[in-house]
Design goal:
- With about 260 residues, this protein is mainly α.
- It is about 65% helix and about 5% strand.
- The strands form two sheets. A two-stranded antiparallel ribbon has the order 1-2. It has a two-stranded antiparallel ribbon with strand order 3-4.
- It is elongated and about 70 Å long.
C-alpha cells in the first residue's frame, strides 16, 4: 500500500489514506509514552547524583536554614551541631530508601558533636516517606508500562506506514504540555500547587505537612524549596530527553523505504 501525503490548509503534513483515521490517536499515545519515559529516565538519572541536593544545598543556603531552625526542634536535639558532609549523607540515605521501597527509613541516624547517635525521623515522617516510596514504585511501574506501549505503538505506526506529524503539530504539542505544567505554577503559585498535589495523592489520615520546629526532615530539605529546585532540574532534563526521542523517531521514520 502506497503512502500518500498531503499538506492541509493548516500547513501540517497528513496521510490521505484510510490509516489517517488512527494516526492522530496513535501518535498522541506515542508522544505521551515518550514523555512519561523521559520523566522516569530524568528521575533515575537524578537519583544517581543525590537528586542534585549538593547544588540545592548551596543555592538555597540550607546550612543557614538548619542553623536557624534546628535549635528550635522540639523532638530531636543538637542537629545544629552536624555539618555539611553529614547533611549530604543523610539526604542521600533518605533518597536511597525512597528508591528502595522505603527500606531502612527507621534506621537513618545522625551524630551530634558530643557523639550521641539519634534517629533522624519521627514515626509520622517515616510513614510519609513510605508513602513517597510507594509513589516512586508506582512511577517506575507506570514507566515500564509506557515503555511497552511506546514500542508497540511505534511498531504499529511503522507497519501501517503512517506519516510522522509535521513540525508545526509537534511543536504545538510540546508547547501545550509545557504550558499545561507551567501555567498553573505561575498563576496559582508553586507552593499552593505542591500542597494541593499532596492532598490529592497521599492518604488523608497520613500526616504530610511538618513544621520546621517539629521535623528535621523538612529542615534538612528546606521543604518545599528543595523540591522546586529538583523539579526544575528534572523538568529540563525530561524536556530535552523528550525532544531527543521525538527527533530520533522522526529520523527513523524518514529512513523508511518508500518515504519521500
Amino acid at each position: 500500500m502506497n503512502t500518500k501525503k498531503t499538506i492541509t490548509a493548516d500547513g501540517f503534513l497528513r496521510n490521505s489514506q484510510p490509516n489517517a483515521l488512527i494516526a492522530a490517536p496513535l501518535w498522541t499515545l506515542i508522544f505521551f509514552s515518550q514523555l512519561v519515559v523521559s520523566c522516569l529516565v530524568a528521575w533515575h538519572l537524578l537519583a544517581q547524583v543525590n537528586f542534585v541536593y549538593p547544588a540545592a544545598y548551596e543555592a538555597l543556603a540550607i546550612d543557614e536554614h538548619i542553623a536557624r531552625f534546628a535549635p528550635a526542634n522540639r523532638f530531636r536535639p543538637d542537629f545544629e551541631t552536624t555539618d555539611k558532609p553529614q547533611h549530604l549523607a543523610l539526604f542521600a540515605e533518605i533518597g536511597n530508601a525512597v528508591q528502595n521501597h522505603g527500606e531502612g527509613l527507621e534506621k537513618i541516624t545522625y551524630q551530634t558533636a558530643s557523639g550521641q547517635t539519634i534517629a533522624l525521623l519521627r514515626k509520622a515522617e517515616v510513614i510519609h516517606l513510605q508513602d513517597v516510596a510507594n509513589l516512586v514504585d508506582f512511577f517506575y511501574l507506570s514507566g515500564g508500562v509506557c515503555t511497552l506501549l511506546l514500542l508497540i505503538s511505534l511498531a504499529g505506526a511503522y507497519s501501517l506506514k503512517l506519516t510522522f506529524p509535521g513540525p508545526g503539530a509537534v511543536a504545538m504539542g510540546i508547547l501545550a504540555v509545557v504550558a499545561a505544567i507551567t501555567l498553573p505554577l505561575l498563576i496559582i503559585g508553586p507552593k499552593k500547587v505542591f500542597y494541593w498535589l499532596h492532598i490529592q495523592i497521599f492518604p488523608p489520615d497520613h500526616e504530610w505537612f511538618f513544621y520546621y520546629q517539629e521535623s528535621l526532615m523538612t529542615t534538612l530539605m528546606k521543604a518545599p524549596d528543595v523540591f522546586g529546585f529538583i523539579g526544575g532540574v528534572m523538568g529540563l532534563i525530561a524536556l530535552v530527553l523528550w525532544i531527543l526521542q521525538i527527533l530520533a523517531v522522526r529520523w527513523y521514520f524518514a529512513k523508511r523505504p518508500g518515504t519521500k
